[in-house]
Every structure is written in structure tokens, then in C-alpha cells.
Amino acid sequence: MTIARLDAAWEVLTRLEQAGFQAYLVGGCVRDMLLGLSPEDYDVTTNALPEQVQDLFPHTVPTGIPHGTVSVLIGGERIEVTTFRKEEGYLDGRRPTRVEFVDDLRMDLSRRDFTFNAMAMDSRGKLQDPFHGRADLQSRLVRAVGKADERFREDALRMLRAVRFATMLNATIEEGTRLAIRRQSHLIVHISRERIRDEWNKILVMDLPIALKHLTETDLLQKLFPRLHDCASPKWMQAAEMANRLPPQQQIRQAALFWGLGINVTTATECLRELRQPTAFIRNVTAILKAIPNTDPFAWSSKLWRHYLYLCGKDAAHSGMLIYCLSRPELLKPLMCLFNEQVSKQPIWSARDLAVTGRDIASSLKITPGPKIGKIRQYLIDLVLENPSCNSRSVLLAAAASFYETQQTDHSQEGNGP
């Protein structure tokens, strides 16, 4: 977050106040400022109606007028400004069916999820905290605003957000809030998998054992991953503790969780698809799972290492080795030394690293590009992986000619029949 965006937010507050309106920074930005963090975004709430905000600022975007939100473009920054409102009728478990603009800040704050997200700050830095969010923040307590069951029925994703905040802040979920999550946990299945995915991906880079503890205590874990319902909580916790030793990167940690649970690539792929993970995410996670050795890498020959690195790729192989060492931490340093040594000697990582191109092969053999070229290139790849010294133009073209001639002879004999 740049100072420019904070300055832009203060400018929006000041202009609204000078025009006679109430205006406050609100929600997560206030929470983060009290924690001494730099907010990613600054949101403003005001009793000015959307059209009044549009009249006051020359550059705006009607982001969500029916819900009272206007984006103000100022100083090269974008600040969301939303009118005080109350909401009713969350029929889809997320969006209210009725929004009414009000002139009461407390009423606006009362619709928010947790007490530390229901604070507002004016341009002079004065805090409005009707639900004692600052005290809960200092006590590291995640507490729902008002009646917790109602908050979670309004938007069931708030239950997963409670887990994320508790993990992020190393906080406790207040008893009444935790029990309400247990009572309403069944509602999580009605939330779009994309929204659940976004929360889960944030949790993946946090302290996983803490997150798993909260997910288990709130009955959310099995509902997030119904396909893994046979995996007992102790097994989940063991997997989380191992994955937590890895870098805070989503894909390697997700792969480590599956590995720790004993989940195969097929089931892992199905789980990730159900969670609506992007294709690239799924591809990378499954590549890592496939790269985790199932035999002792120290016993591998140089030839086996070359084939392994070629098939898996450097990044997936590196991640696979890290996960392999989770249950054998004493092997980490020597294995990574061996891995780096093998990487430095790897002759090719793809067909592009061959000393000849498909065009070279076609020209030398006087054949047109097509499936035959692909088959020859694969033969040359295998040849170089078997013997790296073969990766020279003259050797590969000679090998290509010999292989092509053999293929032609075989096809000719097949055509003649018995």
C-alpha cells in the first residue's frame, strides 16, 4: 500500500466532511491500522447518497449504485465510498434482497461480520467503536457483531472468514461465535465454491495447524472437502504440521496436504476441480504430487535422475523433493545438495534444448513436418537423456537418419505381410 492511497482516502473524507456529510474510514483498513499494518485498500462509509458523492467528485465509477457504492478516482487512486445502509433478506446466503440507505453509522456497522471489522475512523483519527472491536482486537478475539447465528445465515462464508481471521491474528474464536458456526456449518455448502476457494487459498499460506484446529472445532473441515470425509482429524493435523514447514506458497502446501493425507493424484485433481481452482493451479499441484519420489533418490543412477528431472521439470521436482523430506527432515540438506548437483548437469529440460530443431530434422531427411518429426524428436530426447554427450548437431542428425530408416524398413515389412 502506498502513501498516495492513504492520502487519497483522507482527501475523500475531508471533502465529504466539508460538504456537510459524515464520512469515515471503515472495516478492514481501520482494523489493520490499529494493528500497525499497512492496509491494502481504504474503504469509506458516509451518509451522503450515491448521487451526492457523484456530484461532489468529478471522477467516479458507479460500482454498485443499488447497494450504495461509488468508486472515487482521485490522485490516481480508487477509493470505494458506500452510503450508510441496512440490509434485509439474504435469500442466497450472500446478497441482501433489500437495501435501505440510512443516516445512522451504528446501524451501518451493525450489519458487518466481526467486531474488529465494525469500527470507523474520521479524518481526525477519532475511532467509532460501538461493538468494542478494539478491545476484541487487543484480546485477539474473533467475535461476531450482534447475534452470531444471524450473521452467518446472512452470509455463510463469514464462518470461514472467522477461521481465517483467527489464524491470521493467532486469535481465539469467541465461544458464542464458535458454537454458532457449529450450528450453522451446514450452510457452507450453499456458498459458491469460488468464494470458498478464495478463502481457502488465503488460509493455505498461514499457520496451517492453527487453521486446522479451528476448522475441526467448528465442524467446517469435512464440509469444505466432502470427498476427503474418511480422513480423520489427527491425520489432517499431522499433514498440516508437515505442510507448515514448507514455504508459504499455495500450491506446494496444497500438494503437501494431499500427500500427508495419502491422497492420490486422481482424487486430488477431483478435489481441486470441485473447489474451482484454476487449471494452472491444478496442473502445478498434480505435477508436484507426481514429482514426490516413492523410492530413495540417493539410490538413483545419474540416468534415472536425468529422466526424472526431464519428466517433472525443475520447479515441480524441487517441490517434490522438499515434500519428500518432510517426514525425513535429516535428509533435507544432503538431498538438496544432490538435487542441485543433478540440476547443474541436466543436459536438456525440453525438446527446445536439443542441438537440432524439427526444421533441421525435416531438412536433413527431406520429409515434411508432421507426426513423423515428433516421433523422431522423442527418440532424440530419449537418446540424450541416456547419453548427454550425444547432444550435438552431427550426432543427432545421424541418429535421426538411422532411426527414420529403421522406421521405414519396419513399415515396409509390415506392409508386405507374411
From TrEMBL:
GO MF annotation terms: metal ion binding; nucleotide binding; nucleotidyltransferase activity; tRNA binding
Domain tRNA nucleotidyltransferase/poly(A) polymerase RNA and SrmB- binding: 172-229
Cofactor: Mg(2+)
Domain of life of the organism encoding this protein: Bacteria
GO biological process, one term: tRNA processing
CDD domains from the UniProt entry: NT_ClassII-CCAase (cd05398)
Keyword Cytoplasm annotated: no
All copies of domain Poly A polymerase head, residue ranges: 23-143
Residues of the CCA-adding enzyme C-terminal domain: 255-399
Family (UniProt): Belongs to the tRNA nucleotidyltransferase/poly(A) polymerase family.
Name by which UniProt lists this protein: [cytidine(C)-cytidine(C)-adenosine (A)]-adding enzyme
